[in-house]
Amino acid sequence: MNPIAHSPHAHAPVSIGKVMGTVLLALTPATLFGFWLYGWPAINLWAVSLLAAIAGEAFAVRLQGRALRPVLLDGSGILTAWLLAISLPPFAPWWIAALGSLFAVVIGKQVFGGLGQNVFNPAMAARVMLLISFPLEMTTWVAPAPLGSAHAPGWLDSLRITFMSQPLDGMASASLLGHVKTEFTRGVGLDQALVGYYAPLDALWGSRAGSLGETAALLILLGGLFLIARRIITWHAPVAMLLGAAVPALVFNAVDGSHYAGPMYHLLSGGLMLGAFFIVTDPVTSPNTATGQLIFGFGCGLMTWIIRTWGGYPEGVAFAVMIMNTVTPLIDQYVKPRIYGRDRKGAALAAKG
Amino acid sequence: MLNSRPVRPFSLNQSKEPAVLAQRRSWFDRVATNGLFKLRGGVHPEGRKDLSAERDIRVLPLPKKLFVPLQQHIGAPATPVVKVGERVLKGQLLAAAQGAVSSSVHAPTSGVIAALGDFPAPHPSGLPVPTITLESDGADKWIATETVADPFALPPEDIAARVAAAGIVGLGGATFPAALKLNLSRSSGVQTLIMNGGECEPYLTCDDRIMRERAAQIVEGIRLIAMAVDAQEALVGIEDNKPEAVAAMRAAAQGTAVKVVAMPSMYPMGSEKQIIQVLTGKEIPAGGRPADIGVLVHNVATAFAVQQAIRHGRPLVSRIVTISGAAIRTACNVEALVGTPVQELIEFAGGYAQPAARLVLGGPMMGQQFTNTGVPVVKGTSGVLALTASEIGQAEASPCIRCSTCVRACPVGLLPLEMASRIRASDLAGAVAFGLKDCIACGSCSYVCPAHIPLVHYFNYAKGDLAAQERARLKQEATRKLADARSERIARIERERAEAAARRKAAREAKERAAKEAAAKAATEAA
């Protein structure tokens, strides 16, 4: 006789693979835009990241003696590698991508026990590791040279850039955040630093120097809205993160405009949009409840703003997310839903309510 | 005291009944939810009610043999009052309620008692339970029943007594003896009677059909129940995916104090706690009963059974059952006699159109799997489902990604993922701290889980473990008390013995002393 199955005898047509697949789909427009913007080296980098993640995950799972298929098919390793890849400088050498991906899936995830067990967002942990260990490679940016344009590197050139770390001639550029940070240290005020460097429309479209797939704020926003519409994520953490960065920016910019950039500058530069819709919504490392996610998201935004404004690094999202990841268990400990028939402290409600 | 009580609408002529709906609601709530309160969490399982909703209730052909279990309710099994070989008429008492929480069982048709013994129960275990086997004589002849011309003239206490005599239990699935609920509610003062016409389980349409086809009797039953408990208002909550049932019930309730409310369709709307929350905004305190907040909840099919019992004197011997699922050839609703083997229902519906991956009694969300189609329909059987594998949609469990979909789905405000992780780590106390005991096992969390983790299974397992621990603790305590009593008794006997010995010794010594003194006195006197 068959073993007796437990209720419910109906299940929603969902699976982890479908969830991850939907997120990948939402990332595709911004990624394709990045491929077009930065050309073949970006595609190489993306491919190396994914291959390294699959190989690394297979190795780690084999080492643990677990079944390979379900782990590789759930799509979580690919998503991690994809998120890491689009947060890298597009002309970074191959070993940055490979090392980062291996670190993300092996140290960032499998060492903690695999999917669902990790404390830190694996992609962000890998990015922070790379940034600290290889600051030069991680902050060498290029000006956009869309595929087919005169400056775009050819396919052979792209192989040399990615796999032989050929130096870039004439294409190096600073990201907006990096440029402003440098100008500040030289004593140049914000109003001057931004001249000729910051056009909000460019930032919105993503046509600027920056990471592979995080410059197109609009496409990332559309991907995020798609995920909200498909109920893969909720609005809480993203909106809270955007507010967490925009509110202090608004206040400080109003007080001293020459030292503190305004909210649009923060919202549209660096990895804030990507962080808001694809990083702080990572289910594994974010709190369980809507209120918890509001706190978590706001904290991520605020920390990002603080690091960008006063910290030593121009970019803050990866650090901010990792810092807030450490607080997630604490938030979950204190922010719980009220149970039916009980008050917030867990005592039964009074009769005759 | 008696004079200060407000005029109760249901104890009077129906034309004077005022329609009242509690208005303890904020302006925001009314605007946001059309006068109703919001249900927290909940899921929208795929409906599948279309399979059977448009089919009139048909009466199942009389089966040759009926298997009537003695326990078709929560509480103690009933005690048989018939012998093997005895002829019985339809509606005759077969077994009488036994103890405080129990319900009587009646003959579903006329015939001969063929056996009185164990028969497989309609339960996942399929274990045999005490059952009366009745061989039908084909006449289906009713016992002489008492018809009441004006049931509203009956003293309210009589209603509960007649409901008890008719063996009526909650037909929504919980099978709590209905009369007991009436008495408890009467003693604790119920203001609001809520009739549950939610029927939020996918596939099930038995309540939908009974409300469409027998609305007048249901409304009379509701008014009788309201009169029995002296309620001030009676609300019928029906999910808005049953517009015909809402219309039929509204038409039947015209001119009475019974108010029919269309509620949003959301699982588990038909759960007692949730329907109270949506209609009144009140919550039952943890560990309490609806009566604690002045509410009584009954299922609409129970109201029909009450009306039949009070007006026609007919005990509960049949019920409406939905036969459905993609594996069934012709899904439909039937009026089946209690005790009818499930196999006959499946055959009546044309048998299987495709191989059934799973057979379920009740709805797919909370129903129970069964494997033996010989088991009988009982008072609590709302559905017989034959589901295909694709309908069940169950897959191998994968790791929890803490996506908190289950948290959003839980109508009680629990954290299913945290409870499950505690249970996996054998930390029952931790699971209880997260609200394990408040779980209503509605299955919303399991339904939506993208990792296909059998969360309800975890919780039921843990609840079972807790109950076993509790039983063991009580047993241990009882043993300890007995042992303590024994050692105390032994000590007391020893003490009493010692005291008695001491008393005897003292008496002997006193005697000897007296004798000595007497001898000494005699000696001195003699000297």
TrEMBL record, chain A:
Q: How does it assemble?
A: The complex is composed of six subunits: RnfA, RnfB, RnfC, RnfD, RnfE and RnfG.
**Which EC numbers does the record give?**
7.-.-.-
In terms of InterPro entries, this protein maps to: NqrB/RnfD, RnfD_bac
Give the originating organism: Sideroxyarcus emersonii
Xref: HAMAP family? RsxD_RnfD
The portions of this protein that span the membrane are 70-88, 94-112, 124-143, 209-228, 235-252, 264-281, 293-311, 317-335
Q: Its membrane topology, per UniProt?
A: Multi-pass membrane protein
Localization per record: Cell inner membrane
Does the keyword Translocase belong to this entry? yes
Keywords, ordered alphabetically: Cell inner membrane, Cell membrane, Electron transport, Flavoprotein, FMN, Membrane, Phosphoprotein, Translocase, Transmembrane, Transmembrane helix, Transport
Q: Which Gene Ontology cellular component annotation is one that this UniProt entry carries? A: plasma membrane
Role: Part of a membrane-bound complex that couples electron transfer with translocation of ions across the membrane.
Give the residues annotated as coiled coil.
none
Instruction: Report the protein name in the record.
Output: Ion-translocating oxidoreductase complex subunit D
- Entry's family note: Belongs to the NqrB/RnfD family.
Q: Which cofactor does it need?
A: FMN
Automatic annotation (TrEMBL), chain B:
Residues the entry annotates as binding [4Fe-4S] cluster 1: 400, 403, 406, 449
Q: Which GO terms describe its biological process?
A: electron transport chain
Q: How is the cofactor bound?
A: Binds 2 [4Fe-4S] clusters per subunit.
Q: Which residues cross the membrane?
A: none
Instruction: Write down any Gene Ontology CC term.
Output: plasma membrane
Indicate, by first and last residue, each region the UniProt record lists as having compositional bias (Basic and acidic residues).
501-519
Q: Which GO terms describe its molecular function?
A: 4 iron, 4 sulfur cluster binding; electron transfer activity; metal ion binding
Q: What's its EC?
A: 7.-.-.-
Q: Where does [4Fe-4S] cluster 2 bind?
A: 410, 439, 442, 445
Would the keyword Repeat turn up in this protein's UniProt record?
A: yes
Q: How does it assemble?
A: The complex is composed of six subunits: RnfA, RnfB, RnfC, RnfD, RnfE and RnfG.
What this chain does, per the entry, is described as: Part of a membrane-bound complex that couples electron transfer with translocation of ions across the membrane.
The protein here is known as: Ion-translocating oxidoreductase complex subunit C
Record organism = Sideroxyarcus emersonii
